[in-house]
Amino acid sequence: MxxxxxxxALFVGIGFxxxxxxxxxxxxxxxxxxxxxxxxxxLRMRIESMVxxxxxxxxxxxxxxxxxxxxxxPLVTVVNGMTPFLxxxxxxxxxxxxxxxxxYVRVTRRVQRTSSVQTSRGRDSNDFQAVR
Length: 132
Fold this sequence. Notes:
Radius of gyration: 21 Å
Order of helices and strands: HHEEHH
Shape: elongated
Largest sheet: 2 strands, antiparallel
Number of helices: 4
Strand content: under 5%
Structural class: mainly alpha
Number of domains: 1
Helix content: 55-70%
Mean pLDDT: 77
Distance between the termini: 42 Å
Strand order of the largest sheet: 1-2
Number of strands: 2
């Protein structure tokens, strides 16, 4: 949960920077991006606790995963691109949060279906087990 809190704090901090330099921005984009990132991490941790590490495997390209985009933040800061980055995060993070929420519901249903199939077999089924 610490990672989610840290990344949410990152977006809130970027939002304060943008607010100081662009006080006319009406939408609190830092809260939108930060809350969405925290939700994404929370749901992905829940999925991982239900189905293991393989259930949270992210897409990768040339060895880079989706979350590796955060390594570009120093470059974004140097070229003074914090405002466009925050606006992109305020749009992209909630959309990805919706995707992760749908994935969470799908995984939850699959786990429930699997557990109901196992309980329907019963405890006294004729499973052969090796006994030492």
